[in-house]
Amino acid sequence: MRIMGLDFGSRTCGVALTDELLMTAQPKEIIRRERSSQLRKTLQRIEELIGENNVGMIVLGLPLNMDDSQGERATLTLEFQDKLQRRTGLPVVMSDERLTTVEADELMDEMGIRGADRKKYVDMLAACVILRDYMNSHPEKIDELKGM
């Protein structure tokens, strides 16, 4: 079983997956949509990835404000969480995603990714950071899933 990490944005959804041993998080892809309200194809692609990769749990980044308050983006993400849970039947846990884009930018600097290429990778890498941070801060959950 694997865990999927998602960085849900207004027009994109970055996707990352753990390896089968639940030891590492790797970027997978970016799901794009024309308008923020067009979630059907995004949900459909997530379902396909779940089936293709034996996903048993989803970690969704929650974009809180720096003062811990929830803005419009967090509200939309919580609504997306509800849709994901109903559609997939999987547990969808929230993980604080503050500063993940900053960390993704730093990773791209280290990897030498410059210019227009950065937009191709930032959401996918942010999803990877969200997933990795969850794995590091919840080792008991990871051990529990390994035992299943």
Walk me through what this model shows.
- By secondary structure, the protein is an alpha/beta fold.
- The protein has one domain (2-146): YqgF/RNase H-like domain (Nucleotidyltransferase, domain 5), CATH 3.30.420.
- The chain contains 5 helices and 5 strands, in the order βββαβαβααα.
- It has helices at residues 40-53, 72-88, 100-111, 117-137, 139-146, and strands at residues 2-8, 12-18, 25-32, 55-62, 92-96.
- Strands 3-2-1-4-5 form a 5-stranded mixed beta sheet, with helices on both faces.
- α3 (100-111) packs across α4 (117-137).
Helical amount: 40-55%
CATH architecture: 2-Layer Sandwich
Query: Looking across the biggest beta sheet, what order are the strands in?
Result: 3-2-1-4-5
Globular, elongated, flat, extended or rod-shaped: what is the shape? globular
How many strand units?
5
Question: Averaging pLDDT over every residue, what do you get?
Answer: 88
Q: Structural class of the helices, strands and pairings?
A: alpha/beta
The N- and C-terminal alpha carbons lie at a distance of 8 Å
Q: Do you know the CATH topology?
A: Nucleotidyltransferase, domain 5
According to CATH, what is the class? Answer: Alpha Beta
Major beta sheet summary: 5 strands, mixed
- The SSE order reads EEEHEHEHHH
Low-confidence stretches: none
Q: If you compute it from the alpha carbons, what radius of gyration comes out, rounded to the nearest whole angstrom?
A: 14 Å
Number of helices: 5
